[in-house]
Design brief:
38% of the residues lie in helices and 20% in strands. With 211 residues, the protein is α/β, with parallel strands linked by helices. The chain has one domain (20-210): Ribonuclease H-like superfamily/Ribonuclease H (Nucleotidyltransferase, domain 5). Strands 1-4-3-2-5-6 form a six-stranded mixed beta sheet, with helices on both faces. A hairpin with a 3-residue loop joins strand 3 (46-53) and strand 4 (57-64). Helix 1 (75-94) packs across helix 3 and helix 4 (165-182) runs antiparallel to helix 5. The longest helix is centred in the C-terminal third of the chain and has 21 residues, at 190-210. The protein is globular. It starts with 19 loop residues before the first strand and ends with a helix.
């Protein structure tokens, strides 16, 4: 698959900015072990994350970043880890008990995942651990417990922008989410664009394995 934008055939539109968008969907899976690629994209006052798994689960999340945290040095790694959490939740819900190899291109995020596997409860600087609205546990606390108590997970480094189709797709989905919250892509288009981009990446991954 060439590096064509998922917007290549999008109609002309007048879009408006949105505060948040979340998409989780499924496409045709690739047989074999489950590999999950995740990535994040950070703009001045917004963040986006994306994921795609060989088991077919894919999605994105993007939202405005709280003003008092915009200058935080940790927001990149927080967003990277949230991408891992979103992807793992989708994959493990669909395939409980299956082994999953998670590929992450951010070394700082991988460092936290490795420490959590060993039982650490360290969090990125400035990350609030108080309960969220309606008593929800913060997403990184959920991820920390998932990593510590799910031995079937492995985490490996994937070099960024090296042409790996799953990593490239996760990166593109994160950026697509950012474009939506900025108002340059209509929210209504995402349910069509996300599976198109993910399916193309998985088809390329499948061809690469067969070569």
């Amino acid at each position: 698959m060439g590096r064509r934008s998922p917007l290549a055939h999008a109609p002309r539109f007048t879009a408006r900015a949105v505060r948040q968008v979340v998409i989780n969907t499924e496409v045709k899976a690739v047989s074999g072990p489950i590999v999950l690629a995740t990535d994040a994209s950070v703009a001045a006052d917004r963040v986006g994350s994306g994921y795609v798994a060989t088991s077919g689960q894919t999605g994105l999340r993007a939202h405005e970043y709280p003003g008092h945290l915009v200058r935080s040095r940790s927001r990149v790694v927080v967003t990277e880890l949230r991408a891992v959490h979103q992807g793992l939740r989708a994959v493990l819900h669909a395939h409980p008990g299956r082994a999953v190899e998670v590929r992450v291109d951010n070394m700082q995020a991988l460092s936290y995942l490795a420490r959590w596997r060993r039982g650490s409860t360290d969090m990125p600087e400035g990350y609030g651990t108080r309960l969220r609205s309606q008593g929800r546990r913060p997403s990184l606390l959920q991820l920390q417990m998932l990593v510590e108590y799910t031995p079937s997970l492995t985490f490996v480094h994937e070099k960024a922008h090296a042409g790996h189709p799953l990593n490239e797709a996760a990166d593109s989905l994160a950026k697509l989410g950012l474009r939506c919250v900025r108002g340059t892509v209509p929210k209504e288009e995402l349910p069509r664009l996300v599976p198109v981009w993910a399916a193309g990446a998985l088809a390329e991954y499948r061809r690469g394995r067969a070569a």
